[in-house]
Structure formats: C-alpha cells, structure tokens
Amino acid sequence: MKILVCVSIVPDTTSKITLDSSNTRINSEGLTFIAGPYDDYALSRAIEIKDQTQAELVVLHVGLADSEAIIRKCLALGADSAVRIDTAAVDSYQVAQEIIQFAKSQSFDLIMMGKEAIDYNAGIVHALVAHGLGFNHFSPVMHLDVDNDKLTLEIETDSGKSKISSTLPAVLGCQEPIAEWKIPSMRGIMTARTKEIQVIAPSFSPKENPVKANVVETERLQKMIPVEEAESLIDMLKSENLI
Questions:
Q1: Using CA atoms, how far apart are residues 23 and 145, in angstroms rounded to an integer?
Q2: How far apart are CA 72 and CA 133, in angstroms?
C-alpha cells in the first residue's frame, strides 16, 4: 500500500497576525510557522499504519523553500520520502489541483490530510482532491483501521458519530482523536538529515486576484433595531445606501 499525507504550513496559534502593506496578505515577518495541527493527526495515524502494514509513506507540501525544516520534521517522524511543489499556496483550489496532478503521476491507495488548515479554515481541499481523482472521500475522520483494501472509519456527523466501512482508494480529512501527536526520536532526526526532499515545478497557475475588503470592524454602524420595529430595517438600509 502507498500512502500520501498532505501537510500544510500555518502560523503558530500563539502568533499575532497582521496584514502586509497591501492589506490582502498576512505579514509573515516575525511569524513562527508549524505544520497544520490536523495534518499532524493525519501524519501520526499514517505512520502507525505504515509500521503495521509496511506501507510506503510519502509527505507532500505545496509551498516555498522556507517550509523545508517542517517537511524534514515529517521525515524524522517516520515518512519514507517527501515532495515539495515549488509554489506559494494561494487558495484551496490551486492546492487541490497540485495534489491531484501529483497523485495522478503516482499510484497512491490512501491520501490523508487534516480536515482543515487553521489559517483560512476552508476545509475543502480533501473534497476537491477526492473529486478530481474519483476516490472515496470522508471527513472529519476520528478513527481509522486498515485491513488490506478495506477501511473502517469513525466520522463526526451533525448528530454525533457514525461508524462506516469503505474500500480503497480514498481521501480522508482527519482530526483528533485519530492518533496521538508524535515526537521525532534522535535516530529519526539523524536519519531525516540524509533523506532528500524532492522539489518539483508546479503544474497549475492560480488565477486569484485578492482585493481589499471594504468592511472594517471598527466602522460598523452597530445600530440596534427593536423587534417590534423590524420593518424599519429596510428603510434604514436604503437611507444608508446599503441596499
């Protein structure tokens, strides 16, 4: 079996986030970056499956060279190899297209990633990838067992949890408690230093054109409308040229 784990790089949750001079992008100067916490859960469970089944485990990241220290940590944890697609991650669709094109060139049975990245929280990359590849798709996955080409999953639903069965190939968006986060061993760290991170050119050109939002939180009108005067809301919106 061949497993692909897709890892995002996000600002540390304790970081103070500011915008750059364009007011359309996060100012990365001085920020500490980490692997996406939900991706850590996916990687941890994939490592356990690799140890149980002797599967091949590949880590993939869409991003620039400044992410390589975090990718190497994934290798230290137990991934067999790592690939970096050399382009900035602009949006979910672009990232998904890069993953799809890379996966099509390989023969992956199982693709795992976090249910969402904690920066933009879109949570749609796994669904886009599954659709593009024609794989089964489940998210958020809280428990995973693999028996040959059979999967036993526990997923979170609106009404609680559901236990279901599926077959490979599949794309999974993962969350706790699918596995406990792992800490790299000294042997793993030393071994990771000798492993190559393959860098490949992007295959997709993003077309996003970010613009500045006009709504500023401190400039909101913050007017309260009594319930009995709800009909006056329309008149007020019209007078403020808001509709």
A1: 45
A2: 27
**What three-state secondary structure class fits 202?**
coil
The angle at the Cα of 171, spanning 88 to 81, to the nearest 5 degrees, equals 60
The helix or strand, by DSSP H or E, that contains position 126, with its residue range, turns out to be: helix 125-133
**CA 120 to CA 77: how far, in whole Å?**
26
**243: in domain:** no
Rounded Cα gap, residues 38 and 140, in angstroms: 10
Round to whole Å and give the CA distance between 105 and 215.
43
In a domain, 229, yes or no: no
CATH number of the structural domain spanning residue 195: 3.40.50.620
pLDDT of residue 72: 94
Residue 235 confidence (pLDDT): 82
Which of 93-97, 117-121, 178-182, 194-198 bottoms out in mean pLDDT, i.e. has the lowest?
A: 117-121
Residue 168's domain comprises 2-211
Residues shown for the chain? 243
- Cβ partners under 8 Å of residue 222, min gap 6: none
DSSP label at 65? G
Q: Which 3 state secondary structure label does DSSP give 193?
A: coil
Does residue 218 lie in a domain region? no
**pLDDT value, residue 240:** 73
What is the distance between the alpha carbons of residues 197 and 179, in angstroms, rounded to a whole number? 25
Asked if residue 58 belongs to a domain, the reply is: yes
The Cα–Cα gap between 68 and 40 comes to 16
How does DSSP classify residue 228? G
Mean pLDDT of the chain: 88
